[in-house]
């Protein structure tokens, strides 16, 4: 083992961690918002909305992110009407495109996860809320939302961890995050294993921290499911 | 004692609740076939009937969890407006629906407490978020209510940690916290063991004594006979007969009702 | 019309290669899913019923193989695995290179990852079996192997089908990464065609569509399996 | 070891060096040269396609014997693998859009021979002023990347791409203003772009980017290296390389 | 009528079931504090007691779903052997446990039918796979049993498609198919509505008439009084009092029991 080399590699890779984290947080945030919209459309009574949402989920869950990202970044730029539209100043930026395609993709998955959470909300608890005069957004905010979110949390944690790993693809569109930097180091040094093991350690630690945080959140939100405290 | 197949005129006076000629179909199944009923201040009306006779559906139509295909409903003198849409009845204003529901307390057979909230949170949820009253005031009232139904010490527990009888009483407290004009109970004791039945009935009895207007779907003949001031017997989506409990149980009722209470050795 | 020609099955068309790539992707994913099923069962069992050591190992397995980027695992298996096989060969006196074939390495790598996800699916499915049904089986005197065979396994399979559908979807896309082992799967075929013709967008869209076709076919299969498995449930039970 | 069969790997997606045909066979400059070399050495050659990313580790793991994939001979790579003598040495240059103000920079059409470490070149200084504030796209971790960073890193934005192909798409869409890469590689790109892209400024040759492209071999296989070196020398001497080069690159890339 | 705090000697004669001085703790909570009981051929013993008094735990200890910390159990004269492991009681032979359990039928409060099998498959599962009897024979017997409990026409339905009362009867048939020596019922009617209660009690009554030995945890005072030949009242993990129903209900019982049945006006 060449410790000097590993130390040097770690230093280089750690410098790219902020980029990975930025990609991750932004895409989770915007993907989550988009997912709410999609899931709202998916459960809507209007067949146009729900079919659009179904199609969206199908396309973004069914094809590799690599292809999606390629088409968003290199594909959109091929169309003159996009290149000359007001969007181009944004879409021109690789970082924006990377976040955009990550968010589009995770929204598809997250919408499905949220929907299964919605299905788990007991109809009877919704009726109880209606019967005291709750409806619309109040009902969603106070009753449906919290219960559905709690139910969706385990699956959502998995999705979040996958997103951390998915940011690795951003180097395809010239956003150099941890995996991209690792690959660049490899093509400079040809020491595949050492570099990749360092990268793996970084991802493992990131994911471990995130999973612990999610577990903590889950614990806090599941007081009502745990055994009652012993009255002794 | 009246055999009640005719339509009562709905006089919008001191009637807390007035229902006229309610009909409801599920697909081709006619579950309610013209039900009319009036409840005055302080009335405690027991609704009896065999399984599938439409008792739950009737209560659910009153607080608009189901929309009746036909008929009129007044709550505390206010008429619930309906319009036809695609040939189906729908409430004219969802604002009115919410407001009417807030005036009607409903206690479900299966409690339906919100599992992610403590008992106290369950009770203050409606007053704080629907009626938009100050939180501190609501908490004080909620604690008094929980005291009254006898589960004050459980206020910070979650529903899953309570016994059935305690959950049922919490559900009653939750309804009462909305200060409803009328309480609707759907088989409030059928899932409870005999001891818990006693607890819940005690609470309902005290409500009756305070003059709360109540409609109670129940299988508890003792309650129907001793607590309510009127008994309604439903059969195949219609009111088969109705009257004061003393008359009904003493035999001055329809043959179907006599057969129904056959097993009951009051 | 050149698009039809380029994507068609004629002499200048890439259709044949792309379809072959799609079939390769399908094969890798199926084999990976089977490998993952075996590993997943073992790991789920370790996490559920094993002692402290087995449970720790099981947790480590699911944490590591879900937390580390897939590409790295494929590298490890491809190069590490070949190294191991060569070393064994050498110790037996065989000179020269004895590698894991690309297909085996790719399927094994994706299978190991899939195993981590499947373990969680099986564990969840086991926990979803009503405890009373297990007690009822014990109460008539079923011993452990019978209990597993007659009561646990059929129900775990039933509860696991939707989750396995998701894992299949994941593996389908993880298999896109095995191209580093030189396997001509759908992703690599698209890239090769794109690089050789310089028609990048065309071939990426074509590849994406083929992935969507694979997805919709497998979705249909899983939905049918789910309906079949749920025939003992009321029709409203959690069906899409 | 007695070499009867040799396995050669290439990417099969790097036109015109090596491409895959729609029927799945490999073609291009390198496969044809490989056939000639193997005939010279009287060994049987097997061509296999594999992914660029895993190529060098896979060579060392023994998956194949030779890499023939436009592999530039560099000091870093020499640390892990061995090279044959070069069979090609290409120029590099800037590309831009035809109607870009940057087109036709000073020296367009000329070839500049440079040696490693050479500084203060007049033409480069002129380009520095012309390219100020622009975005230059390069393929990450190549010899060209170092050249661009050394000379233009301070005055222009440098954006690194994983592959040249992606960079070319961005050059067309206008996300970047300039691209710097292998001139023969650009040749094919320009053909596909239907004249929308052109060279600007001089082409750079000489040894500044190394001595050219050679075969990659395991360090242990010195005998194989000797065999290939001999065959390449023959191919250069009898004009085979030149003929193939004119056929595929429309220019002579002989070192 | 005996106040039963003393230990009965376990005479391994015609006793179907004999339990001596069973104790069970959950953590620091002592749930069973020395229970002894004997059931002879044809005995129908009702076990009453308020919630949490340990009735379910007692039944579960008998068929070894819980392992008692102390005490002896004989089933049909066979002693269940226990050994100490890490200071805890464990059954000496898991073969014996399986064999004993096959002789004890248990009907759970929540039915616990196997949801992935049809009713018929549920019923033949034990005979075919545990007792390893020929399949055709088992099917014939199962159909007869289902006929007897009145749900023969539902034999190819899945549990989820049956009403509560039908599920409960299927669960009884499943137990009976094992031809147990003793049947243990844990609140077999508490989740049912009054009409279904009637159906299930009818089946149990007919079992009693055929001479099946039964232990029944129940809240149905009518059943305890009219069907069983012995009543056991549990309180805080002990047998508070026991006796023939006639004596017990006529008032010759402990004060706690009189208070317990206070609400019951049989
Ligand atoms: N949403 C629905 N769709 C179709 N049919 C329904 C629906 N709700 C109730 N029914 C049917 O309407 C009839 C009356 O049901 P309802 O629940 O009102 O009876 P009930 O008198 O409350 O009976 P129980 O005492 O068993 O609660 C039943 O036959 C039931 O199957
Ligand atoms: N597995 C367990 N772990 C800890 N405590 C338990 C467990 N099972 C039961 N208990 C406790 O043991 C006591 C007796 O429980 P048991 O279920 O035997 O009561 P029961 O008489 O059947 O009551 P019910 O009529 O409500 O069914 C209760 O206080 C209960 O909380
Ligand atoms: Mg009802
Ligand atoms: Mg119990």
TrEMBL record, chain A:
* Gene Ontology biological process: amino acid transport
Write down the SUPFAM superfamilies for this protein, in alphabetical order.
MetI-like
Major place of residence:
membrane
Domain ABC transmembrane type-1: start-end pairs: 13-215
Q: Which domain of life is it from?
A: Bacteria
Membrane spanning stretches: 20-43, 86-109, 195-217
Q: Which NCBIfam families does the UniProt record give? A: HEQRo_perm_3TM
Give any Gene Ontology cellular component: ATP-binding cassette (ABC) transporter complex
- Keywords, sorted A to Z: Cell inner membrane, Cell membrane, Membrane, Transmembrane, Transmembrane helix, Transport
Say yes or no: keyword Membrane present: yes
Q: What family does the entry list? A: Belongs to the binding-protein-dependent transport system permease family. HisMQ subfamily.
Which cellular compartments is it found in?
Cell inner membrane; Cell membrane
Q: Which GO terms describe its molecular function?
A: transmembrane transporter activity
What is the protein's name according to its record? Answer: Octopine/nopaline transport system permease protein
The record's Pfam families line, in alphabetical order, gives: BPD_transp_1
> How is it placed in the membrane, per its record?
Multi-pass membrane protein
From TrEMBL, chains B, E:
- Alphabetical UniProt keywords: ATP-binding, Cell membrane, Hydrolase, Membrane, Nucleotide-binding, Transport
Q: Which is a Gene Ontology cellular component entry for this protein?
A: plasma membrane
Top class in the EC scheme: hydrolase
Q: Which domain of life is it from?
A: Bacteria
* Recorded topology in the membrane: Peripheral membrane protein
- Give the range the annotation lists for the signal sequence: none
The chain positions of domain ABC transporter read: 17-261
Q: What Gene Ontology molecular function terms does this protein carry?
A: ABC-type amino acid transporter activity; ATP binding; ATP hydrolysis activity
InterPro entries, A to Z: AAA+_ATPase, ABC_ATPase_HisP-typ, ABC_transporter-like_ATP-bd, ABC_transporter-like_CS, MetN_ABC_transporter-like, P-loop_NTPase
Subcellular location(s) per record? Cell membrane
EC number(s) on record? 3.6.3.-
Q: Which Pfam families match?
A: ABC_tran
Q: Which family does it belong to?
A: Belongs to the ABC transporter superfamily.
The protein in question is named: Octopine/nopaline transport system ATP-binding protein
Provide the species name. Answer: Phyllobacterium myrsinacearum
Automatic annotation (TrEMBL), chain C:
Q: Does the keyword Transmembrane apply?
A: yes
Q: Which GO terms describe its molecular function?
A: transmembrane transporter activity
Q: Return the GO cellular component terms, semicolon-separated.
A: ATP-binding cassette (ABC) transporter complex
Chief subcellular location: membrane
SUPFAM superfamilies, per database record: MetI-like
The question of whether Transmembrane is a record keyword is answered with yes
The record's Pfam families line, in alphabetical order, gives: BPD_transp_1
Chain segments annotated as transmembrane: 17-46, 71-89, 96-117, 200-222
Q: Which UniProt keywords apply?
A: Cell inner membrane, Cell membrane, Membrane, Transmembrane, Transmembrane helix, Transport
Q: Which InterPro entries would you find in this protein's record? A: AA_ABC_transptr_permease_3TM, ABC_transp_permease_HisMQ, MetI-like, MetI-like_sf
Q: Which NCBIfam families match?
A: HEQRo_perm_3TM
Per the record, the similarity remark reads:
Belongs to the binding-protein-dependent transport system permease family. HisMQ subfamily.
UniProt name for this protein: Octopine/nopaline transport system permease protein
Query: Species name for this entry?
Result: Phyllobacterium myrsinacearum
């Amino acid at each position: 083992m060449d410790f000097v080399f590993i130390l040097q590699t770690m230093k280089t890779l750690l410098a790219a961690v902020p980029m990975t984290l930025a990609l991750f947080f932004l895409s989770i945030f915007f993907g989550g918002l988009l997912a709410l919209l999609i899931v709202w459309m998916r459960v809507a009574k209007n067949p146009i909305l729900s079919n659009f949402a179904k199609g969206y989920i199908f396309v973004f869950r069914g094809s590799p992110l690599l292809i999606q990202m390629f088409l968003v970044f290199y594909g959109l730029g091929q169309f003159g009407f996009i290149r000359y539209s007001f969007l181009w100043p944004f879409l021109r930026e690789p970082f924006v495109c990377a976040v955009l395609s990550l968010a589009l993709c995770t929204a598809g998955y997250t919408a499905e996860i949220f929907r299964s959470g919605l299905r788990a909300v007991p109809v009877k608890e919704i009726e109880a809320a209606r019967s005291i005069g709750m409806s619309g957004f109040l009902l969603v905010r106070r009753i449906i939302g919290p219960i559905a979110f709690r139910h969706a949390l385990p699956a959502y944690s998995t999705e979040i961890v996958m997103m951390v790993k998915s940011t690795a693809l951003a180097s395809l569109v010239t956003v150099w995050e941890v995996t991209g930097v690792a690959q660049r180091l490899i093509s400079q040094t040809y020491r595949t294993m050492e570099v990749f093991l360092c990268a793996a350690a970084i991802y493992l630690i990131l994911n471990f921290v995130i999973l612990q945080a999610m577990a903590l959140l889950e614990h806090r939100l599941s007081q009502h499911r745990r055994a009652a405290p012993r009255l002794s | 004692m009246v055999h009640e197949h005719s339509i009562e005129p709905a006089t919008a006076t001191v009637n807390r609740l007035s229902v006229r000629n309610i009909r409801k179909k599920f697909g081709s199944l006619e579950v309610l076939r013209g039900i009319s009923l009036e409840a005055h201040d302080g009335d405690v009306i027991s609704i009896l009937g065999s399984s599938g006779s439409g008792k739950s559906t009737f209560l659910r139509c009153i607080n608009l969890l189901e929309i009746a295909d036909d008929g009129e409903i007044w709550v505390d003198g206010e008429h619930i407006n309906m319009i036809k849409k695609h040939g189906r009845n729908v409430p004219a204003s969802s604002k009115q629906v919410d407001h009417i529901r807030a005036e009607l307390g409903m206690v479900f057979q299966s409690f339906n407490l919100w599992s992610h909230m403590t008992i106290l949170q369950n009770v203050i949820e409606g007053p704080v978020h629907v009626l938009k009253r100050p939180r501190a005031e609501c908490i004080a009232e909620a604690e008094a209510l929980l005291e009254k139904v006898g589960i004050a010490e459980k206020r910070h527990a979650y529903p899953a940690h309570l016994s059935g009888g305690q959950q049922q009483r919490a559900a009653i407290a939750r309804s009462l916290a909305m200060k409803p004009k009328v309480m609707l109970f759907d088989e409030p004791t059928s899932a409870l063991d005999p001891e818990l039945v006693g607890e819940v009935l005690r609470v309902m009895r005290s409500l009756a004594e305070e003059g709360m207007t109540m409609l109670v779907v129940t299988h508890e003949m003792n309650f129907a006979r001793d607590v309510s001031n009127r008994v309604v017997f439903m059969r195949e989506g219609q009111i088969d007969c109705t009257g004061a409990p003393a008359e009904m149980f003493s035999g001055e009722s329809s043959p179907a009702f006599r057969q129904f209470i056959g097993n009951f050795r009051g | 019309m050149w698009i039809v020609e380029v994507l068609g099955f004629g002499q200048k068309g890439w259709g044949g290669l792309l379809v072959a790539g799609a079939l390769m992707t399908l094969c890798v994913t199926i084999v990976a899913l089977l490998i993952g099923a075996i590993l997943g069962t073992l790991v789920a069992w370790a996490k559920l019923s094993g002692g402290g050591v087995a449970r720790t190992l099981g947790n480590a397995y699911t944490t590591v193989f879900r937390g580390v980027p897939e590409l790295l695992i494929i590298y490890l298996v491809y190069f590490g695995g070949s190294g191991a096989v060569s070393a064994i060969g050498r110790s037996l006196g065989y000179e020269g290179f004895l590698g894991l074939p690309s297909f085996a390495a790719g399927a094994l790598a994706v299978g190991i990852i899939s195993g981590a996800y499947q373990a969680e699916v099986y564990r969840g499915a086991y926990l979803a079996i009503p405890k009373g049904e297990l007690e009822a089986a014990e109460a008539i005197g079923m011993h452990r192997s019978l209990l597993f065979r007659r009561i646990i396994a059929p129900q775990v399979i039933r509860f696991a089908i939707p989750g396995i559908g998701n894992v299949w979807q994941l593996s389908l896309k993880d298999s896109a990464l095995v191209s580093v082992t030189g396997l001509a799967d759908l992703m690599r075929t698209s890239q090769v065609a794109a690089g050789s013709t310089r028609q990048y967008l065309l071939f990426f869209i074509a590849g994406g569509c083929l992935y969507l076709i694979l997805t919709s076919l497998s979705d249909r299969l899983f939905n049918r399996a789910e309906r079949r498995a749920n025939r003992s449930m009321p029709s409203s039970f959690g069906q899409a | 070891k007695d070499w009867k069969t040799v396995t050669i790997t290439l990417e099969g997606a790097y036109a015109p060096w090596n491409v895959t045909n729609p029927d799945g066979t490999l073609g291009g400059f390198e496969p044809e040269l490989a056939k000639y070399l193997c005939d010279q050495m009287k060994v049987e050659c097997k061509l296999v396609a594999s992914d660029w990313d895993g190529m060098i580790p896979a060579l060392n793991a023994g998956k194949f014997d030779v890499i023939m994939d436009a592999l530039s001979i560099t000091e870093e790579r020499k640390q892990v693998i061995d090279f044959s003598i070069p069979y090609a040495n290409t120029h590099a240059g800037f590309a831009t859009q035809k109607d870009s103000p940057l087109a036709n920079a000073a020296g367009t059409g000329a070839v500049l021979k440079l040696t490693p470490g050479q500084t203060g070149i007049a033409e480069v200084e002129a380009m520095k002023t012309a390219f100020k504030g622009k975005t230059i796209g390069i393929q990450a971790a190549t010899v060209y990347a170092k050249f661009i960073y050394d000379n233009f890193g301070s005055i222009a934005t440098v954006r690194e791409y994983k592959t040249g192909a992606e960079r070319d798409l961005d050059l067309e869409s206008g996300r970047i203003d300039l691209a710097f890469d292998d001139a023969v590689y650009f040749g094919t790109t320009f053909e596909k772009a239907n004249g929308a892209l052109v060279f600007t400024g001089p082409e750079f040759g000489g040894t500044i980017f190394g001595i050219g492209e050679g075969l990659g071999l395991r360090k242990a296989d010195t005998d194989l290296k000797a065999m290939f070196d001999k065959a390449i020398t023959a191919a250069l001497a009898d004009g085979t390389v030149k003929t193939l080069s004119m056929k595929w690159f429309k220019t002579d890339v002989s070192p």
